[in-house]
Amino acid sequence: MDLKRGPQRSGNKRHQARKVGEAVCDMQGDLWDLDGIFLHLMKQLVPGWSGGALPSEVMPELKNTGQFHAHDLLLTAEPAGGGKISLRICAFEG
Predict the structure, then answer these.
(1) In Å, what is the CA distance from 54 to each residue of 13, 41, 59?
(2) Does the reported pTM lie above 0.85?
(3) Which of 12, 17, 39, 93 is deepest in the core (most CB within 10 A)?
């Protein structure tokens, strides 16, 4: 047995919980509800972004494909009803 690694560590990276940020926005991209992880990861996704609304460079791709990928992060959007959009952001493992 390798004492440095130990049997429980093999493959652990794949099973670690991924940080997922969540938010809700309207059809114009104005954010109504977001968590701290979403805020933190969005600032990595779009350097210089300060919040309030989704960045203009993100909206066209979200509207067309439901996804925006940059800087090893993936932002996804799904309709949530009532003119709202549910957003999720996490590390991209592709």
Answers:
(1) 31, 13, 7
(2) no
(3) 39
Res 6 pLDDT > 70: no
Query: Is pLDDT of 1 > 80?
Result: no
Distance of CA 80 to CAs 15, 16, 27, Å? Answer: 29, 28, 11
Write a three-state SS string for 21-87: EEEEEECCCEEEEECHHHHHHHHHHCCCCCCCECCCCCHHHHHHHCEEEECCEEEEEEEEECCEEEE
Q: What tokens were used for 24?
A: 């809700």
As a whole number of angstroms, the distance between CA 88 and CA 75 comes to: 6
Please state the domain extents for the chain: 28-91
Closest CA to 26 of 75, 87, 69, 68: 87
Q: Which residue has the higher pLDDT, 37 or 5?
A: 37
